[in-house]
């Protein structure tokens, strides 16, 4: 698919063969096709497993850190920065996302686009064929619900980051199917709501579902999130109360334990991306992109040992660190907030102390093959979403218990007054959900992005050493000049489509 012209002979051949004898329409008995593969419950179970798979690539780091969703959700905000390395200049795309200089050729942008459309394509194949195959009705509902959830989840992320995008709802069988016009944002949201609503009706509760898979609670939380973004406050309140009243979820008493690798898919987990340490391709590794670099093996060993981690095969990290907490974020934690020590630690790199994301540092056997899952939705966010939905309807007094349930777990006093509750909830989301890819989307959806990031960018330029630039180095003049609310459509995809 590198050149549109390369499709022409294939398409002509396809249409030419279609007029030949009927025997050409018989599915191959030796090669797997959609006609021969999707014929049993087991086949659909395998297909649904495959639909989840691209999510690991979207949330992990890999050899190329540009695959991390955290680049567009966290570093593209005032929560985190990169530690500029003048000796490692192979990372311009990541820096440009942090500096608000994103172009259509940015690899992280392309990776997000391709990753989610891979999920969508796999979900579409399942949804197009599952009703035509007979097997256990409950199993079918579960599998169909998971596919609908994954498609809705993928489109929701894409529309928030890109705006107008192509809306693929059936498997592509021709060049026409591959290249679709950009759909209006409202049409995309309508489809997301339809998919998430149907998924919620088909999926089992968390207590009846295999750990790590989408549930009715996850679909309802997604639906509540969509309504929050669209400012459908009453609809958000209704569906989020269903999650709360289900009694399927509760806050883990100790904040740090929420993220422990010995406590995956816990009572607070609504949906998280599954990883497993080891060399079989299922491990995570984002913490190794988050350390300040360059950092020697000795310094890395000492830092990890300080937090009870001692993997084998540690080596120096010599590239450039990302997602390093800003002093602005650190200052936003209230005195006594137990989440600060659970979320942010200190690492010594090249003899200098830097903050780093402690939330994702846990014991693992071998360096770079970590066991951490990535939290997408937690019950604490459900509570904060519900508080926001109530406050926006003038029900501030009703909102306070949900907000305070989150604060109580953090060791903080209850909020008593409903004055300026919108800002209080916004602040609470920042510290409760730090480093979970929420900050940029929160800034954009609440209309704060331009003001907050413009002020933040001015601070970075005025004091680059305070934002991890070495002496004598500073951001390029064009950084933070334009604060766009959506990312550009990938140039590599534009070359394959006449519509953008």
Automatic annotation (TrEMBL):
Residues 357-498 form the RagB/SusD domain. Its main location: membrane. Keywords: Cell outer membrane, Membrane, Signal. It is found in: Cell outer membrane. It comes from the Bacteria. Residues 22-224 form the SusD-like N-terminal domain. GO terms for cellular component: cell outer membrane. Residues 1-24 form the signal peptide. CDD domains: SusD (cd08977). Belongs to the SusD family. This is SusD family protein. It comes from Chryseolinea serpens.
